Amino acid sequence: MMDMQKILEIMPHRYPMLLVDRILEIEDGKRIVGIKNVTINEPFFQGHFPGHPVMPGVLLIEAMGQAGGMMLMGAFEDPEDKVVYFMGFDKAKFRRPVVPGDQVRFELEMLHFRGRNCRMKGVGYVDGKPVVEAEMTARVMDK
After folding, report:
1. Max CA-CA distance within the chain?
2. Residue 125 belongs to what domain range?
3. Residue 31 maps to which CATH number?
4. 101-133 as b/e, with b when 16 or more CB fall inside 10 Å?
5. pLDDT at 132
6. How would residue 57 be classed by pLDDT, with cut points 50, 70 and 90?
């Protein structure tokens, strides 16, 4: 389990783009479970949409990708000197809106990992129901 302090030591992202609040489970290079707590204080809710706040789908994909990035970073000895670049997203689906008060649980599994390249599949759940899913291709690079 990783709290926010440990996440900040590994991830290069900072407010307002850090979208993972906690890591619940991790098997380096194999599987990860991360949490995003969605609050009305998120800056994107000012414009998406006033009076009807909905978390943008692209940010759900980004949050899922960040959780996947945490899984990848654990496979390298010096994660503070690395950055994960996503090269592609496939089969993305948005199942229902994510709104303030929701907690999104991202579950990702590695499909293929060789050298610095990988392919992973992720699903985000709110209250046990899928809200987003995608397959992602990424590469770990030196900063």
Report:
1. 47
2. 4-142
3. 3.10.129.10
4. ebebbbbbebeebeebebbbbbbbbbeeeebbb
5. 98
6. very high
Q: Which of 13, 48, 52, 112 is catalytic?
A: 48
Q: State the Cα–Cα distance between residues 14 and 87, nearest whole angstrom.
A: 21
pTM over 0.85: yes
Percentage with pLDDT > 70 across the chain: 100
Three-class SS state of 117: strand
Nearest CA among 59, 71, 77, 78 for reference residue 124 = 59
Interval 62-106: pLDDT, tens: 999 999 999 998 888 888 889 999 999 999 999 999 999 999 999
Q: Please report, as a single letter, which amino acid is at residue 88.
A: G
Known catalytic residue at 112: no
**Number of domains the chain is built from:** 1
